Amino acid sequence: MVYTISIGSNEQRKENMALARRRLIELFPGICFSKEEETSPLLFHRPALFSNQVARFSSEQQPAEILLRLKAIEREAGRKPEEKKLEIIRLDIDLLSCDDTAYKPEDLKRDYIVHGLEQLSSGRY
To answer: How many C-beta neighbours within 10 Å does residue 96 have?
Structure first.
């Protein structure tokens, strides 16, 4: 199965994005990452900029197992549910799609995700 994920952070961005990439490479050898893109916050009042990135990898694991692994990486970065109200996102890794199944169809329309997917499809990453 081919998975597409998005990775984002607005708190200690450099460190948390690097942590995510290291852990994802360990879990999914052959993973490809788009270039990291800085964006303004969407639907947040906190002015902290976001770092965003898209990645694609193959795995025989089922989507539920993939989600558990992604959430474990978020927790390793120190993500706490109560911080979401404060608009602190240490690390957010979302499962966008698996093969032809879209899990976050609205997110797939976001500019930085579209750009990332174009990079991954064209090999420009």
So the answer is: 21
